[in-house]
């Protein structure tokens, strides 16, 4: 009986050790996992697994043929994806905030920890001053070329209290 108990104890101990070894070889935290960002979709084919998964997560869409850069509009999710017709590769992604007539507000994470309720003063304090790119339709756009995105504000003026209207994610050619 003592031999039987001793063998069972050794067997249980060896199972526990094997289990510990297996656990030790697995990642102990999420630091080794690459965090998914929308920037990873730029330049990818529309049939790429990550692009397909992202599009499915956004739900229903409408399609608009706009020359060589067609648009896929996800009104209920606040996203517009633009791709190059010739290559079917994602060229840019618009994330919609407040003040966009047809779109609901995008609820996912924004680049650089930005939040939709931030005004231009808060954005510039967080990520610096962008290069003024355009003014049109009641909005002003600032480009952050080094960060691969633009921020559009709900004003044509130099109003530092203007809120973010949308964010455009894209790579800029030098």
Task: Break the fold down into its secondary structure elements and pairings.
Layout: H1 2-25, H2 49-58, E1 62-64, E2 71-74, E3 79-84, E4 89-96, H3 120-127, E5 131-136, E6 139-144, E7 149-153, E8 164-170
Antiparallel strand pairs: 1-2, 2-3, 3-4, 4-8, 5-6, 6-7, 7-8
Describe the structure.
- The structure is a single chain.
- It contains three helices and eight strands; from the N terminus they run ααββββαββββ.
- The chain is globular, with a radius of gyration of 24 Å.
- The chain has an eight-stranded antiparallel β-sheet, with no helix packed on it.
- A hairpin with a 2-residue loop joins strand 5 (131-136) and strand 6.
- The protein has helices spanning 2-25, 49-58, 120-127, and strands at residues 62-64, 71-74, 79-84, 89-96, 131-136, 139-144, 149-153, 164-170.
- It is of the alpha+beta class.
Shape: globular
What is the number of strand segments?
8
Beta-strand residue fraction: 25-35%
Derived structural class: alpha+beta
Average per-residue pLDDT, rounded, comes to 81
Strand order of the largest sheet: 1-2-3-4-8-7-6-5
Would you identify the regions where 5 or more consecutive residues have pLDDT less than 50?
Answer: 1-33
Encode the helix/strand succession as letters.
Answer: HHEEEEHEEEE
Q: What is the terminal-to-terminal distance?
A: 80 Å
Proportion of helical residues: 10-25%
The Rg value, from CA coordinates, equals 24 Å
> If helices are DSSP runs of H or I spanning 4 or more residues, what is the number of helices?
3
Largest sheet: 8 strands, antiparallel
């Amino acid at each position: 009986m003592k031999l039987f108990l001793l063998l069972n104890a050794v067997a249980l101990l060896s199972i526990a050790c094997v289990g510990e070894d297996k656990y030790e070889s697995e990642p102990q935290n999420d630091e080794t996992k690459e965090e998914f960002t929308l920037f990873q979709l730029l330049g990818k084919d529309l049939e790429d697994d990550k692009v397909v998964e992202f599009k499915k997560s956004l739900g229903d869409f409408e399609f608009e043929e706009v020359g060589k850069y067609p648009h896929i509009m996800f009104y209920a999710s606040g996203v517009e994806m633009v791709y190059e017709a010739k290559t079917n590769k994602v060229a840019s992604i618009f994330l919609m905030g407040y003040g966009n007539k047809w779109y609901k507000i995008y609820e996912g994470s924004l680049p650089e920890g930005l939040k939709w309720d931030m005004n231009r003063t808060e954005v510039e304090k967080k990520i610096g001053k962008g290069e003024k790119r355009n003014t049109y339709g009641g909005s002003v756009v600032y480009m952050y070329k080094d960060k691969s995105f633009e921020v559009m504000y709900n004003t044509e003026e130099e109003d530092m209290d203007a809120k973010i209207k949308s964010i455009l994610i894209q790579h800029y050619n030098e």
